[in-house]
From TrEMBL:
PROSITE patterns: HTH_LYSR
Protein name per UniProt: LysR family transcriptional regulator
Region (Disordered), start-end ranges: 281-302
Domain of life per record: Bacteria
Entry keyword annotation includes Phosphoprotein: no
Regions of compositional bias (Gly residues) in chain numbering: 293-302
InterPro entries the UniProt entry points to: LysR_HTH_N (IPR000847), LysR_subst-bd (IPR005119), WH-like_DNA-bd_sf (IPR036388), WH_DNA-bd_sf (IPR036390)
Keywords: DNA-binding, Transcription, Transcription regulation
Length: 302
């Protein structure tokens, strides 16, 4: 019989890439992770990892087992959700992740509504970039999260996660006068921090317009970004959620690309009462609960 805890370690190795990263995610030592994976190989009766020096990679058999591990873990989530549905009332922690503009706009009214409807829930929120969400959902640090991606930066599917669509946003060029993207070729730019989705999206949008942005400032808070634009410090790309209020002297010109915001959770957890209650408070529609939602599906990163 294969051990579920060891299957989870193998699944996380497939996502995280190194034993050290798996150990950090689970608060184990690398030695302990290696021992558990070696025990899983004995249980499976086959080599799951190919070792070259200090590096490991999944064998074809290991990749097959990871696929089945995802199904097993999703089934456990569904069982957990079914058990939770038999209880009266919602209580305990609900750990929520959200990106900064969602923290400021979408989340506060949802938290108020959820707190009134389910006062037994202990709502715990963490602000983070969407790229940091998938590992925190997989390891149970978060229960649900608000994430986003862009037409120009689509997210690769992650079989461990599912999403429900929430909203699509227009993306704008913010400048001191109306101008399209090609007209910003020679302007200084204000970009988000490297490694964030917003940074990657802006660079790709500029590249699609035939140039590489000349970066003057890095700022992740869009209020700051718009203030800098108003001060003549450069141009920037901002999503609709972040575009209000607009400082005097700043003109927003819409682009064709869009940003999509979604509610993310572990595969199999859509029917968990706490996840359903949070989705209701946001107006999201998890697939399989109230009909198939437009754009619903699986999500992963970042």
């Amino acid at each position: 019989m294969l051990d579920v805890r060891k299957l989870r370690l193998l699944r996380d190795l497939a996502h995280l890439g190194t034993i050290a990263a798996v150990a950090e995610a689970h608060a184990y030592t690398p030695s302990a992770v290696s021992q558990q994976l070696a025990a899983l190989e004995r249980e499976a009766g086959a080599a799951l990892l190919a070792r070259t020096g200090r590096r490991v990679a999944l064998t074809p058999t290991g990749r097959v087992l990871v696929t089945h591990a995802e199904d097993v873990l999703a089934a456990l989530e569904r069982a957990t959700a079914a058990l939770a549905a038999t209880r009266t009332g919602l209580s305990g922690p609900l750990r929520i992740g959200a990106f900064p503009t969602a923290m400021r706009t979408l989340l506060p009214p949802a938290l108020v509504a959820l707190g009134r409807a389910h006062p037994g829930l202990d709502l715990c929120v963490e602000e983070l970039d969407p790229a940091a969400v998938p590992p925190k959902l997989r390891d149970g640090t978060l229960d649900v999260a608000l994430v986003h991606d862009y037409d120009l930066v689509p997210i690769e599917p992650d079989p461990a996660l599912e999403t429900a669509p929430l909203l699509d946003e227009t993306i704008f060029i913010a400048a001191t006068g109306p101008r399209d993207l090609p007209a910003c070729r020679d302007e200084p730019w204000i970009l988000a921090s490297p490694g964030t989705l917003c940074h990657t999206m802006t660079v790709r949008a500029c590249e699609a317009a035939g140039f590489i942005p000349r970066v003057r400032h890095h700022a992740d808070d869009f209020v700051t970004v718009l203030t800098f634009v108003a001060a003549g410090q450069g141009v920037a790309v901002v999503p609709e959620l972040a575009a209000a209020p607009v400082p005097g002297g700043v003109v927003l010109t819409p682009l064709e690309t869009r940003r999509r915001t979604r509610l993310a959770y572990r595969a199999g957890a859509a029917r968990h009462p706490a996840v359903s209650a949070f989705a209701d408070a946001l107006g999201a529609r998890p697939p399989g609960r109230r009909g198939t939602a437009r754009g619903g599906g699986r999500h992963g990163q970042q």
